[in-house]
Amino acid sequence: TTVAFNQGDLLDLFAHAGDLTGSLVAADKAVQVFGGHYCTQVPIGVAACDHIEESMFPRQTLARDYIVTSPATAGLPNGRVRILRILAADSGIALSYDPPQGGAPAALANVGDFVQIGPTAEAFKITADKRIMVTEYMVGQDYDGQEGDPAFTLAVPTDQYRTNYQFHAPLSYTTNYVNVVAQTGATVTLDGAAVGGFQTIGGTGMSVARVPLGAGLGGNGNHQISSSNPFGITVYGYGSYTSYWYPGGLNLDEIIIQ
C-alpha cells in the first residue's frame, strides 16, 4: 500500500485478524511509526488484556547485539518471565545466544520474519550477523500471580548505550523499577548513590541490576543515572492489573554495518 501524506497527517493501519509484526514502513521523508495492540493477552488466553504501544526505532539505528533482562517484581526480585520477539531487518540472518537458550531459533530467513522466545526469566545476549529488532512483553497478572499486566518495550542495541540518562517513573504506580545493564565491575550511580546487586550475564562481561525506585531526588519520580562506561536501562512499573515498560533512553545514532 502506498499513501500520500501532508505534514501532520496520520494513518491508522489495523489487522482485524492476524499480526502486523514485521511490517516494513518506508517513506521518502521523515515519519514516526508506532506499533501496538488495543488490548492484548500475554500469553494468549491469560487474563487480563491490556493496551500496549511503542515508538519504533528507525531501521538505520538497529544493530546486531542486544542484552535482554527480565523485569523484577516484589515477589520475584531476580526477574519474572516475559516473552520476546526477534525481528529481521535484513534477510539471511544467523542468531546466537549467551548464555545458550535451549530451543531458541538460530536463523531468520527474510526481512520481516520474526521468532518468539519464552516465557523465560533469563537474562541473555542476542547476537546476529545482520540488523535485528528485539521486543519484550510482560505477561498478564493471572499467569504467575504477580502484580501487573501486559506491557511492551523495545530492547536497546548495545551500540546505542549512553553514559548518563534522565528518566521518569510515575508515582501513580504501586512499584517502579529500573534494570541497569553495565560492564561487570563498573560503577553506576543512581540519584547520587552507587547501584548494587549486579548479577553476571553468561560470558558477556556484562551484569544486570534490578533496582526498586523511590520518588527520586525531587520527589516527583524524576531520576538521574550515570557511569563512566556506556550502559543500558529499561524502566517499568506495576499496579493492580496494569503496568508500563519502556527503554529509559538511547543514543539513536545511525549504525553502520559492513
Question: What are its keywords?
Answer:
single chain, 258 residues, mainly beta, seven-stranded antiparallel sheet, 1 helix, 17 strands
Give your account of this protein's structure:
With 258 residues, the chain is an all-beta fold. It contains 1 helix and 17 strands. Strands 10, 11, 12, 13, 14, 15, 16 and 17 form an 8-stranded antiparallel β-sheet that branches. Strand 14 (199-200) and strand 15 form a beta hairpin. The longest helix has 4 residues, at 141-144.
**What is the average of the pLDDT values?**
95
Give the DSSP E fraction (strand runs of 2 or more residues).
35-45%
The shape is: globular
What Rg is obtained from the alpha carbons, in whole angstroms? 18 Å
Largest sheet: 8 strands, antiparallel
Task: Tell me the structural class.
Answer: mainly beta
Overall strand count: 17
Poorly predicted tracts of residues? none
The level of helicity is under 10%
Distance between the termini: 31 Å
Counting H and I runs of at least 4 residues, what is the number of helices? Answer: 1
Order of helices and strands: EEEEEEEEHEEEEEEEEE
